[in-house]
Structures are given as structure tokens and as C-alpha cells.
Amino acid sequence: xxxxxxxxxxxxxxxxxxxxxxxxxxxxxxxxxxxxxxxxxxxxxxxxxxxxxxxxxxxxxxxxxxxxxxxxxxxxxxxxxxxxxxxxxxxxxxxxxxxxxxxxxxxxxxxxxxxxxxxxxxxxxxxxxxxxxxxxxxxxxxxxxxxxxxxxxxxxxxxxxxxxxxxxxxxxxxxxxxxxxxxxxxxxxxxxxxxxxxxxxxxxxxxxxxxxxxxxxxxxxxxxxxxxxxxxxxxxxxxxxxxxxxxxxxxxxxxxxxxxxxxxxxxxxxxxxxxxxxxxxxxxxxxxxxxxxxxxxxxxxxxxxxxxxxxxxxxxxxxxxxxxxxxxxxxxx
Amino acid sequence: xxxxxxxxxxxxxxxxxxxxxxxxxxxxxxxxxxxxxxxxxxxxxxxxxxxxxxxxxxxxxxxxxxxxxxxxxxxxxxxxxxxxxxxxxxxxxxxxxxxxxxxxxxxxxxxxxxxxxxxxxxxxxxxxxxxxxxxxxxxxxxxxxxxxxxxxxxxxxxxxxxxxxxxxxxxxxxxxxxxxxxxxxxxxxxxxxxxxxxxxxxxxxxxxxxxxxxxxxxxxxxxxxxxxxxxxxxxxxxxxxxxxxxxxxxxxxxxxxxxxxxxxxxxxxxxxxxxxxxxxxxxxxxxxxxxxxxxxxxxxxx
Lengths: 333, 302
What we know:
The complex is a heterodimer. By secondary structure, chain A is of the alpha/beta class.
């Protein structure tokens, strides 16, 4: 497997640029020094609470938002040094599925126009007839009748709209798709269908996903690797089974313990985090998680724990990464 | 709100699947269906078309020369020879109305259309690109808005003289800020829509995004504004004519006919009545068409 996406030290700080009078709001550090790789055909899931910067990260990868620092290398080409025209060509390789199935489809355009939009943008749609054939194929691929193509988005349900959004993303045969919480706006009963569809398409076409989610159960099904984010930083990243089986960061541990367990009595003890996520405009010194961490010491306030390899292919940013897992330890005690 | 019945019906879905892929409905079919299913709109459209035809063929339709005075026939009430009577100089009111429609309609349609095109361009650029473009455009708009359009018209007329095209330019300049304001505000709102971001992510070029996603979605308020201004512009032309800057007497325009008739109101009311009625009917028709167009442009209402 070759490296498809390489992210190095990616960061984004939002500044208050409003023209109003009075003091400016402090800058918001949405993403801070994020580095990772995505292999060809791999599914990397990014999880974290709302406001942890995971959606910003997805947009930075596509350069929909200009990064403050760091770089994104897609297929050996550095996005940040590219001109606007080259960057647009790059978008053929990198498509996106959005969270909001209602807002992300223009209410004015027909399904055919929406699905063919990336094709049209790159002049790949061919003749009027060829375009309709292509759209029909794409719609069938995502499980919608081809005859729906002249309808408007308002005639579809949330799940159907998300299928349309997926058809749009795969229309140009990209090698990488950023899926920004693609199922979190859907009914639970529909979520599984969409996840399965996305997985089937991924296996069939072999593209890679950056799959952003706040639901660990969803991620567990589709991901190859998992990155856990907290306040703009990656606190742990590794293979799905590694991270889920034995977390090496107290935040991951807490997230996992908060996920509902299907088999009652199996749970070994829930870690309830105290307080709220601190504001990303006032990130705590040292380890950002220390204000809510059950293991925090004076060291954590002083020094930011680096993201270091704790096992092959497995990185965690905690001074006590080796002392894990906590739950098991606590139960033993 | 939306009709979702049938979407979950497997039989219907199966039918839809078997159905051959029909060709896309053409633009014209959609427009015809959306615009013409209401009788009021059809009538309004017919009225505007008739007025335009009358204006175009005025010399052949008008029964008399609109400038020809007759001392023998002043202040007549409607009769077989003069269907709408005559004014204080014995000129045929109907003929003056028919010839006057040329000036009034051109003023009423031209300036708002020009202003809409220029104002929307400025407003969309300011709203979409933001930054320096936005600051410059917004300040210019604020400055222009400080002047009432009539004052602006008088200023320009004083500087350039009161020719036909000068008046069109003046009214265009006067109306532009309103369109720019509305376009800018709507663009700011539309730009936040996820489908605009989706288009960017899909790799669509910026001009195409603006043409395909921004402009169609801000067109509804622009069209309504255009119909409102077309009424104002007929009215302002009348005022300018009165001040000696608009259509010069003895040439007729609807505003002019009313102004002339006002001085002579107690001798005959027919010039005022007919001029006023003509303006009312045209403005009402334009507004009705504007409403219909707005409804077509509003995707949720269709």
C-alpha cells in the first residue's frame, strides 16, 4: 500500500476579522499541529467531541479552508504550493460527502445536475445523452432508481439525499473522499444502510476515506484506522482494533466507555468526564486534556505530551501512555 | 411541506426503475407550466404585450397627431371623434397617451433593467469576494444612497443636460445602490449554504458557482425590486418632465399628460384619468408578472 495523503503539521487559527468596534475576540485554535498519513484504499476515521476541530481538519485537507501552517500532500503533490488551477484539478482526486443532506444539495437543481456537477466541472460529462447514462449508472450504484434523475432534492428523504450526495462524490472516480459526519444527521435506522453503502462502494472502487464521526459505533464498522482528536490535536491514532481494544490515552478510554454497550453486564466501568471541553480560544497549557483527565499531574500542566509511538503503527500523546488501560487497572485495584 | 408519498412505495419504485430514461424537461416547458397556470399572470402578460405593441406601432394606431392643436375642440369629454376627449389645447388625449407610452415604457423598463444588471453584479461581487472589493463597493453604495434619486437626477441633468439617454443614465445610477444592497445581503446568505461549499469541493470554477448557485438564488428579491422600481421610474420621469428635465413638451409622456392635465383639472379630468389609469394598469401588470417570476424562482414554493 502506498501513501496517498500525507499531512504534516497542519494547523488553523481563526482570527476575529469582523469590522465592528471594540475588542477583538481571541483567536481560535481549531486545528493544531496535526500529522498523519492515509494509505491508498484505506479508511481513516477521525473521532472526537463536537468542536474538536475534526470538520475543520476535513476542510483543510481539501483546502476549502486555507491552513495557517503545515502542508497537505496528495499523491506526491503539495496542495499549499499549487496555483489555483492546479488545485482545482486536484479536486478531481479528492471529493467530499457532507454532513447536512438537506443543505448540501441545491434545492433549485435536478438530481441529474447535482450528481453530474463534478463531471461538468472537469468537462467529463460528454454529450447530453452520455451524461444522462452516466448519471443513471451512478444513481443505480447508490441504490436509487435512475428515473428519479429529473426530480428536485425536496422530493427526497434525508437518507435518499445522502445517497445523492455520495453519487456526486464518486462521479469523477476520486481516489480519496472526505466524509464529514455523513450519517449523523440521519435516523438511526437509515444510518446503517448508508454506512454499508459507503463501505460497499469503497471496496468496489478502492478509494480511501477520511471518515469524520462522533459516533464510535459507526466508526468501528467502517474504519481501518482511528484518529482521536481533542481540542484540535490528535491524541491517539492507530489501528481500529488496537485503539478500541486497549486505548493508550485517557480521553480515548473515556470516549469508549461512554459508548453504549449492546451486551448488558459486560461493561467494566464507565469513566465520566467532569466539566466541558475548554474553549479552543483558551487551550490549557501543557496537555490540553489535563483539565478533565483523571490521571492529570503537575507534569501535564507543564509539558505538552508529544505524539509518540507506543506500539508499532500506534501513536498516543500522553505522559502516562504506558500505564494503560485505566479501566482494567482500576478494576484490579 | 413536501410530498413524500410514494417515495417509499416499493411498487412505485419498481415502476420508476422499469421506466425508460426520459429526456430532461426543457427549460421552456418548466417556465410555461410555472408561469402560465395562473390566469392573473396570463392577463397581466397580455396587457404588457399589448402596451408594448401599442408603443411600437404608435404612429399607425394613434387616430390623430399627438401634437396637433385645435382651438375648436378644447376640453372635450369623450365622444365618437375623440374617444378619451381632448385637453386644453384641443389635442386628442388617446393619441397623446399612445405616443406617450413610448417614453414612459422605455423609462419604466430600461432603467430598472440596467440598474438590476449593474447593481446585482456589484452586490454579488462584494458579497461573494468580500475584503477590499466589498469595502469599496459598500462605501460607494452608501454614498449614492445618501442622495434621493430625484436630487441625483436633477444634479446630473444640470451637469449633462436633459436628453433622453441622460435621464436613463441618471435613473440607472439612482436605482443601482438598492439592487447592490439587496444582492450583497442575499449573496452573503447564499454563500453560507452548504451546497456552495459542495460545489467548491467538487471543483467547480468560481464564475460557474456564481452563475449557477448564487445568482439564481438571489434573483427572487431582485425581480420584485425591479417591478417596484419600474413603477417609480415612470413616476420620476413624470416629475422630471414637470421640472423641465424629462420629456420636453409638447412631446407627450404619461407623466407629462398628467402634469399638463393637473393645471386644467377643473375644465376636463380626462387627461389625468387616462394617464393615471395607464400607469396603474401597466405597473400592476408588471408587478403581477414579477410575483409569478418570483414564485418560479423560489424552489420551495413551486
